[in-house]
Amino acid sequence: MLSLLPIMITATAIATIAGIGLVCRWRLHRFAEQARAGRYDNLADAAGALVIRCGRSGSVKSVSSNCESLLGVPASELMGRGFFERVQVADRPAFLKAISDARAGAVTVSAALRWRGAVRVDRGDYAEPVFLCLELRARRGGDLAAGGGHGIDDAIAIIRDVTQEKQTEAERDEALAAAQEAALGKDYFLAHAGHELRTPLNAIVGFSELLANPPLSLPDIEKQREYARIIHQSGLHLLDVVNSISNISKIQSNCLAVEREPFAVAPLIDLCCDMVKLHAQKSGVELLRAYPENLAEITGDRRACAQILVNLLSNAIKFTPPNGTVTISVRPQPQALQIVVADTGIGIAEHDLARLGDPFFQAKTSGRTQNGSGLGLSIVRGLVGLQGGTIAVASKPDKGTSVHILLPLDGVAAKSGMPAKIQTVADLPRSDRHDPHNHMTVQKIA
After folding, report:
1. Which of 6, 165, 291, 367 has a CA between 20 and 30 Å from the CA of residue 202?
2. Is the per-residue pLDDT at 421 higher than 70?
């Protein structure tokens, strides 16, 4: 027994020394981790960004203490796979590649990530997460790793929240694109306005010169009257173009006053039909109107509504061949009235529908026999938009066109005051191909 005593004393001493060594090693490792964390915090404070240390497979081993103040998420939620799980699925390969490349080399690797933040937006049935735009710059640990080389192969990533910068950049790009589009639109507008003004002016100047110059004037009195009629028609066309340009300018600059008052729609439709019925008779077009009895009043600008209807009816008659039909009808809707002007005219090709309503744009159709400035529908867009309404156009070549105007009953104006966007359909709805007004009184005007 005495012979075993030295052995036991030696073993106890060895175990004690080993224990002390392990404790010292643990303490040294802990001190190294604290020193490393302090370095990360210093780096994070200097960069004004989040600093994380990532090992193999992108797992996070440490996070700088400013995590919650920067991203609104506790550091504990990002440890391990926590940060990776918040990266948008489409950006996860880019994150893993950046960490892998950083660990393998001695260069700084960058990546742009969309990262699910702590904020959520309530969408009623579910809460939609808000993704932040993060800029990641990663490099091999190197000098930042302390404690006997532990972590020297890890990747140190500096992460900045650039969401606001990205939004500002997107808004700047959008504003630049809008400015460029406006500049192109202005050039297009001026070019076509010049053409529309030049054509009647040339006729006025030319024929008035013939009448004023005896050597050039024809003795035939009928010919002189013809010249005078051409001058008169050109002057009227010129006046119409100038008035239309003025109206469009006022609409686009939001300077057109809108006077809202309650008024009955049926008498207004009758008045507009009376204004265009002579045009319909001369063109050989049958003009019909249909609306139910006891039609509700609407609050809006009566003058603007009259201009909308006259423009639509005139266009429909203009592009409807003889023996065709133009119908204006009203369909009550919840809190709104839908006014439909449908014709059996030449229609509009599908590739032209997208540009309907652009100033001076005129659809190219083989059956077109009428000339115009291409401003009528632009004015309609603006006037409908000013009254908070919507406009839709359905058309098919050689089958006709129907324009659907939806006006609110309470006269609520559009907040932006901008022209209404035209929704287009490259076909006629079945309800516009056949008479949908069996419950209404259809009246023939011309």
Report:
1. 367
2. no
Strands 109-122, 127-140: pairing is antiparallel
Tens digits of per-residue pLDDT, 189-229?
666 666 667 777 888 888 888 777 776 666 677 878 888 88
pLDDT in tens, 139-188: 887 645 444 445 567 888 899 989 999 999 999 998 888 788 767 666 66
Tell the burial category of 402 from Cβ atoms under 10 Å away from its Cβ (0-12, 13-18, 19+).
buried
Query: What does the block give as tokens for 445?
Result: 């005007």
pLDDT of the residue at 135: 92
Phi and psi, residue 388, nearest 5° = 75, 25
Quote the pTM value.
Answer: 0.51
Question: What are the two backbone dihedrals, phi and then psi, of residue 345, each rounded to the nearest 5 degrees?
Answer: -85, -155
Whole-angstrom CA distances from 66 to 63, 125, 160, 166 are 8, 34, 12, 22
Scanning the structure block, which residue is given the tokens 């005051």? 417
Q: Determine the Cα–Cα distance for residues 403 and 399; give it in Å rounded to an integer.
A: 14
Strands 422-425 and 400-408 turn out to be unpaired
Bridge partners (DSSP) listed for residue 328:
289, 341
DSSP 9: H
Cα gap 196→205, rounded to integer Å: 15
Examine the pLDDT at 24 and tell me if it is beyond 60.
Answer: no
Question: Which residues are within 8 A (CB) of 132 and not within 5 positions of it... i.e. 6 or more apart?
Answer: 71, 114, 115, 116, 117, 161, 163
